[in-house]
Amino acid sequence: xxxxxxxxxxxxxxxxxxxxxxxxxxxxxxxxxxxxxxxxxxxxxxxxxxxxxxxxxxxxxxxxxxxxxxxxxxxxxxxxxxxxxxxxxxxxxxxxxxxxxxxxxxxxxxxxxxxxxxxxxxxxxxxxxxxxxxxxxxxxxxxxxxxxxx
Length: 150
Known about the structure:
Elements: H1 4-7, H2 11-37, H3 40-49, H4 53-70, H5 76-98, H6 103-118, H7 120-132, H8 137-142
Helix pairs in contact: 2-4, 2-6, 4-5, 5-6
InterPro entries: DoxX
Organism: Microlunatus parietis
Subcellular location: Membrane
């Protein structure tokens, strides 16, 4: 469901947003695959961090979930927001611990931050619905209340 601000966007902005989302999803799928399969670069990076395989697999799972979320319209903004937080950690790890190339993590952070910004109204609406339990109204209305018989 598009919000009023999203539906009023010019078509080129909408297309550009989708292109960014698809490219970012592809990149995160690619990096997650490398982490899951134990690519040499990935293993060396996480060994340098000192966390070992568990953090590599966790990061890969988060990247995979985020990539899928980027392609699901109601979740794309929230996925981008979560991936932004993940990439902040990646940039900090690259700069402070690993000491390796930092340009790719910074570029991915910039891309997912732009996607999160584009979908900010939708993301805030989703968070508000989750907080108020709007998605659970059907389930709650079918349950008997305290003191009622079913």
